[in-house]
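Data deposition worksheet. Section B asks for the primary sequence of the deposited chain exactly as it was used as input, without tags or linkers unless they were present during the calculation. Section C holds the resulting structure in token form. Section D is free text for depositor observations; keep each observation to a single sentence. Incomplete worksheets are returned to the depositor.
Section A, Depositor: J.P.
Section B:
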Amino acid sequence: MFKATDLAAGRTVAVKIPQSYTAGSQYMREAQIGASLDHPCLLKFIPVPEAAKSRPYHVTEFLDGRSLYDELRARGGTLPVDDALRLAARMCDGLDYLHHHHVVHADLKPANVMLCADGSLRIIDFGIARWAKGRPKSLGGYPQHLGTPEYMAPEIVKGKRGDARTDLYVLGAMLYEMITGRRPYEDQHEDKQLVARLVGDPLPPSHYVPDLPPQVDEIVLHALARKPADRYQSAAEMRADLAAPEKVAVTGRADRLQKPVLAKLWWPVAGLVGGCLAGLVGAFFVLLWLVKK
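Section C:
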């Protein structure tokens, strides 16, 4: 990423150049998706004629500020609850626009949210963003990256495509982190965290912040539901709760959580593997019998 000056407009811009020519198609897709968007909470792309490029790159507005990731580190890992809710609501504004334009970000995380010096916010990095299902695939193949493991939704772990609700799951995980200073499932061993989100629920945020209003637990756990159908169905719906948490109905989600039991996933796998091995052994003895005969 380079800081540059747009001589035609007399403004400071950022120029992003791929590290290799093999990433050119991904950059082209990112630039095309970015150019189709125009919202105050999304990074603004500046069109550059392809004929003017000697190699793949794209130009965006230059942002003066720091990422949410750096902001959390500077503040000891957490934000005041009201600040966290406000930031999440503003991210919902950007996601609502994004999803209405049939785009899934697919890699939302604190490092991809910029908090600007003028008080504004931008969701950045559309490197693996893609058109939602049903949109014509006019930009070539999809990237093979699945996102960042710590913020990966259960359906992505399963290898499914995901949709707008996948972004909302990740926003729920980010809100969890802003409030508690921990990521969901961080109580699980590192090599089991991805598996744990398939078979159980994270500890409620109030486990780490005892005086947290139950309405905030409701919002976070609603976004983090394992099944997409059980989550917020739109960014606008989630934003409404974030903007007025005192009006959120407390349904007791925090009391109905299911602790991850990894055996629920591993035993079927072990059974399948054992069955295959038994079949191979059986086939071997049948073949041996036929040879002797």
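Section D:
The two ends are 72 Å apart (CA to CA).
The chain is about 40% helix and 10% strand.
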